[in-house]
Design brief:
It is built from seven helices and no strands. By secondary structure, it is an all-alpha fold. Helix 1 packs across helix 3, helix 2 runs parallel beside helix 6 and helix 3 packs across helix 4. The protein has one domain. The chain is globular, with a radius of gyration of 17 Å.
């Protein structure tokens, strides 16, 4: 009976795998080159993590069980990983919770903006991405990234919910040319 306290839940293992796949997609070098030109900074990398995580969590949350539970487990894993990364970077124990709270607020703000923009199509999503990723009012700079995000969303919508349990996540390859 006591051994149950130390066992990992299947959702946690799947969430850890999904997080790894999200990180691999968010770190694709093509996203930081033309035509996407995401800033190759800590903030730019965080923005790519948020965008990819948002798309996966959104899809899981809309799926039948165990999708919503897995979406929650994935959210938990993302913030556990951010906590670990901050500690590995040397951020002090007292500052980590404050940083995590700021990241959570940033994540929620971007998630809300992207959720509101998706029904408006490429133009609306490009405007939200321009503000959040590029710090710009020019939606044109974010149009390639918006097309990529919409392509990823369509690929995930077409994938059966079981595909997320087994992997891999159906992220499309970024296009190297506009």
């Amino acid at each position: 009976m006591i051994f149950k306290l130390f066992s990992r839940k299947p959702d946690a293992e799947t969430a850890e795998r999904l997080y790894g796949e999200i990180m691999a997609a968010a770190r694709r070098p093509e996203l930081f080159l033309a035509p996407y030109n995401v800033p190759d900074t800590l903030e730019g990398r965080f923005d790519m993590l948020v965008l990819h995580a948002f798309l996966v969590i959104r899809r899981l949350a809309a799926s039948p069980e165990p999708g919503p539970a897995l979406a929650q487990a994935l959210s938990d894993e993302i913030f556990r990983a951010l906590d670990r990364a901050l500690r590995e970077m040397g951020v002090g124990d007292l500052a980590v919770p404050k940083r995590i709270a700021r990241y959570a607020a940033d994540y929620n703000g971007r998630r809300t903006a992207y959720e509101a923009a998706l029904p408006g199509g490429e133009t609306a999503l490009a405007e939200a991405l321009a503000r959040n990723v590029y710090g710009s009012a020019d939606a044109g700079v974010a149009a390639p990234l918006a097309r990529y995000a919409l392509s990823a969303e369509a690929a995930m919508a077409a994938a059966p919910p079981a595909a997320f349990q087994k992997g891999p996540i159906p992220f499309p390859a970024p296009q190297e040319k506009p």
